[in-house]
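Problem: given the chain below (139 residues), write out its structure.
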Amino acid sequence: MQLCGTASGGLHRAGRLSYGAWERSRLKEGDEMRLVIVTIGWILVALGVGVLCHDLVKWLLTGNLAIIDAGSFWFAVHETSLKLAEPAVARYVHPWLWHPVISTILLAPTFVVIGLPGAVLLLLARRRRYSGHGELFKG
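Solution.
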């Protein structure tokens, strides 16, 4: 059996894999972007679940349920960026955006602020499988 190189750098048996078969073996159009969105979604969901588990373990150890809000979490992770974000948003975007919108988000539980966008990304990137529902309208 003789192996030959292809234009993409892969090897195949000589004369056995045509260009059409190689093309069909590739991902469908748009699957690369879907893979990126699904990966980001799962990372966000995993981080949200991790923060929720942290809050629950802390509750079990101390007996005091204290769910960390997104602002406190951001302050604990990177204090400087939180301090710089408010003036930057107020100056370069719009002052109205920080106090009613972003400050409300920063008061929400961290696992919701991180996990909910991940769940939405997973929901939007799922593959849609159509069943035979269209047969109802056939004559």
